Amino acid sequence: MENGTMEDMDVLWEKVECKRYELCRNITPAKLTPYLRQCKVLDEQDEDEILNSLLLQAKANRTSRLLDILRTKGERGYVAFLESLEFYYPELYKSVTGKDPTRRFSTIVVEEGQEGLTQFLMNEVVKLQKNTKVKTLQNTELSRKTRTLEDEFKKLRLANQELQAFQQRYNKLREERNTYSDELLRVKDENYKLAMRYATLSEEKNMAVMRSRDLQLEVLHHECIHPNKNAVPCQSSIPHLAFAHLVTIQPQPLFNRPAQCGAQ
């Protein structure tokens, strides 16, 4: 690669360009920049532009800008980029080169020596340990939340069972209420019929009383006009008194009919 011409570099970068969409979609620039900084293909200004530029809001745009900057670094930028892919994204490395990762880290060895490589690997181990600790804490918190949610689910399931029992009881009570309501309507209807029958009988009774009075009046009137010749003289005033009493007799008040069935 050290004797590669510009044309060779263009051919190699064209392979990267063919995978630009896939690379921009899957790479997180912040994972690659520390290695590229240590390989001295990126400086602090480049890293700040890639990670913090307000013009590059999306992750894909930051990765695209990273590729553009690395292409300006020539062969070293290409090799360092592939080595970073080997370490962090071995599947993408194989997709770009068609080769399995070897993880030789030749660029960082040239720039920093074995001590530099060791330091870099130690830093990565520390990062992994921190990430593992964070993951462990997150898993612990998730487990706690899971247990809490399970307890709440059990409570909700019991509450749901109680609600179902109340619903069944409510349905049963509603059915009983409907039955009693129908029975009440039937009793009211029968009561109304009885009341009407009673009113009819009362009318018939009053009519009979009136008829009886009329007949008695006729009899007394007849006796007054045609007195019995054999009657005792002191008793001749009795028909007149009976007549006066019968005239004062008033029929009994009729039963007040209910206006409707529900009035009873």
Automatic annotation (TrEMBL):
Domain named CARD is located at: 8-100
Q: Which UniProt keywords apply?
A: Coiled coil, Phosphoprotein
Q: Which Pfam families match?
A: CARD (PF00619)
Which residues lie in coiled coils? 139-190
Q: Kindly give the InterPro entries that the UniProt entry links to this protein.
A: CARD (IPR001315), DEATH-like_dom_sf (IPR011029)
Lineage, top-rank taxon, reads Eukaryota
Instruction: Give the signal peptide, or none.
Output: none
The name this protein carries in UniProt is: Caspase recruitment domain-containing protein 11
Protein source organism: Goodea atripinnis
